[in-house]
Amino acid sequence: IRDRYQRRVRDACSCYHMWKTCGAIAFIGAASVSAIYALRVGSETRQQSPEIRNQREKKKNEFLTIETICNAVPSAPRINKIEVESGEFECALGVPILVVYGSEYGYCKEVAMKLSRRLRMMNKASNTPMMIRCISTEMFPAFQLSKESILLLVISTHGDGIPPSSAKSFYDSLYEACSHPDLQLQTLKYSVLACGDSNYPNFCKCGKDIDKRLVELNAVRFHPRVDVDQEDDDAVEQWISGVTRSLVNETHGLKAIAAEEDYLKDALGSDQEQTASKFHRKNPFHSHIIEKKMLTRFLKNDDKETTHIVFSLADSGLTYESGDALAVFPENNPMTVKKILKLLDLSADVQVPCPSWWYEKSSTISLWTALLKCYDLKIVQKSLLKSIQVLLPNSAHFKELSTLINTDKKSSVREVVDILEDFPGCKWTAKGFLELLKPLTPRLYSISSSPKQNVTEISITVSVVRYQKENASNPLGEGVTTCHLQDRSSIGSTLPVYVQKNPNFRLPLDSSVPIIMIGAGTGIAPFRAFLQERVKTEQTSGENVLFFGCRHPDQDFLYKDELEEFVKMGKLQLFLAFSRISSQKFYVNHLIFNHSHLLWSLLSSRGAILYICGDVNMAVDVDKSMIDIIVKEGHLSADQASAYLKELVTSNRYLKDVWAS
C-alpha cells in the first residue's frame, strides 16, 4: 500500500510539470488521480483485516495527504475541499456558515454536530463550497453576529423558560442590544431549532425569544423555526432537511473567505468544553454510596416511596453549591435487556461501535453493555416503528403500526420491549437495531445537602417511580434511574456522577435578605441545602420561610425531624399543607394564599427572594395563587399583578427549579 501511495505522490508531482506547460486542466487531472486514490485506499482499508488496519493507523503520519501534496508543489493552487470523514468535505475556502448550539445536557450539541456533518457532505458536490464553523454559546463573545452572513442556531430551554447556563451571556446580550441602537443585523440570515418540553408552560421559550429578537434586529429568517418536543428526532430531521435545501439558494452570491482569514479561527481551535471540574458528562466521577435510607412509610401501592441517598466525594476534587444538581448515569433493568436479546435472537457478546456520547473511551463494546448502559429502552422512536413496518409489510398489525407512527401521543404507553413483543418476527443486526434507539442520558437530581455541612459528601432525595402501563404484556413500569438506585444499588455500590451547576437557583449573596421557599414532595431537596447553609453561616440574619406540601404528616413528611429542629432554633418559619388528611384536597398553593399578608410583606417591603421547587403543575398553581395574592394584598388589577410577578422574575427575585412529572 505504501509503495502504491508513493507512486501516486510521484504521479501528482509529475502532473505539476504538466500543469506548468498545459495549464489548469492537467492540474485538475492530477488532483483527481490523488482523490481517486484516496477513495480507493479508503475502500481497500475497509476490506482489510483489523491487523492490517492497525498497522496502517500506526504509519498514517508518515503518509502525505492530498493537501500536503498540492502545497508541496511550488505555486500550485490550493485545494479547498479536504475529506475529513467518509463523504464529508471541509473547505479551506468557502462561504462561512456559523452553527451555534446552546445546550444544558448535550442534546443540542449532538444535533449541531449532525447538521455540520450534513453540510460538509453537501460540499462534495456543491458549486458554492461552505466553510462550516460549529461553536458553543459558551464561547460568546468570541463569535459576533454582526460579522456573520448565515447563522444556524440550535438551542434548548432549561426547565420552564430558562436559557441553558452556557447560553445565558449570549441570550442576555441580544436584549442588552436595546441600549445599542446602532447594532443592526440586516445582513444576517438565520434559522432556529428550539428544543424544549411541552409539559412546561414556557415551552421552547429561549429559542422563541431569540427568534423574535433577531427579527427585531432586522435579521432575515430564511427558514422557519422548528420547536422540538422532548428530543423528537423526526422534528429535528425536518428542520435539518429544510435548512440544507434552503441553503443552496441562500449561499448564492455570498462572499467566500479563506480559513486563515476567519476571525474565529483561534476560538474554533480552542477547547469549547470549558468546565471548572475534571469530572463532567464526558468524564464522570465514579462515586460510591455511603448512606441510603427510606424517608417515607410505604403502606399502600399508591403511597410515595422516597429515599435519601448520600454519595462520597472523597478524593474527587468535586465542588458544588447549594442549588446545584447531581447528574447520575443510570443502567437499564438487566431483565429487560435479557428479554430484548432473546426476542431479537442476538448474542450479548457481539461487539458493536461504542456510542460517541458514552463516557467510556473504546472503539467497540458488547451488545449487552450497549443495551444496559448506553441506549434508552423506554422511549419508542418512530424510526423503530417504521422499520418494523418495512420488515413486516403483510402483518396483521400493519394498521396499528401506522396509527402509532402518526399519533402525537407520548410513547410512554409502551416501551421498546413491549413493541418487540407485540410485533414479533423482526430481525436486525445488532448495529442496525441500536441505530433505532435513543441515547440513555444522565438524570438530574436537586442536591439536598450543603457543602458547608460536609464538603466530602453530597446527597439527593429520590422519589421512586413505578407505574402501570396500558396495552402492554408487562403492565408494571419503572423509572430507569430511580429503580436502579432503589432496587439494584446499596451502600458500597459505585455509580458514575457529576455536578450540574445551576447558577439560576442560588441563595442571595447578602445573607440578611429574607428567603421564601415553596415546595412539595422532593421539591424540599434544595431547601434543605439552603437551610443547612444559612444555619451554618453564623452571620445570617435573613428570615427563612418555608411552605411545604405532602400527603400525610406520618407518611411522607420529608426531613420532618430536621425541619422541626430548625424551627426550635428560631431559624425557620414552617407552614405545612397535607393533601390527604381530609376529603377536601389542600395543597401548597392554597397554603400560601392563607398566608398572603406575610408573603406580600416580605416581597413588597423587605426585598425577599421567592423560590419554587417541585413538579411543574404545582409551580403553575403557585403562579396563579401568587397573582391572587398580589391582587388582594397590593390592591392591583390582574394585569398589574402579572406585571409585578414578571418584574420579580426579571430582577432574579422569583426563581424556579421545576421538572415535568
What descriptive keywords fit this protein?
alpha/beta; 6-stranded antiparallel sheet; 26 strands; 21% strand; disordered N terminus
What would you note in describing this structure?
38% of the residues lie in helices and 21% in strands. The strands form seven sheets. Strands 3, 4, 5, 6, 7, 8 and 9 form a seven-stranded mixed sheet that branches. A six-stranded antiparallel sheet has the order 17-12-21-10-11-18, with helices on one face. It has a five-stranded parallel sheet with strand order 24-23-22-25-26, with helices on both faces. Helix 10 packs parallel to helix 14 and helix 20 (596-606) packs across helix 21 (616-634). It is globular and about 75 Å long. Residues 1-87 have low confidence and may be disordered.
Shape label: globular
Largest β-sheet summary: 7 strands, mixed
User: What would you call the structural class?
Assistant: alpha/beta
Radius of gyration: 29 Å
Show unreliable segments.
Answer: 1-87
Question: How much beta, percentage-wise?
Answer: 15-25%
Q: How far is it from the N-terminal to the C-terminal residue, by CA?
A: 58 Å
The count of helical stretches stands at: 22
Number of strands: 26
Helix content: 25-40%
What is the mean pLDDT?
83
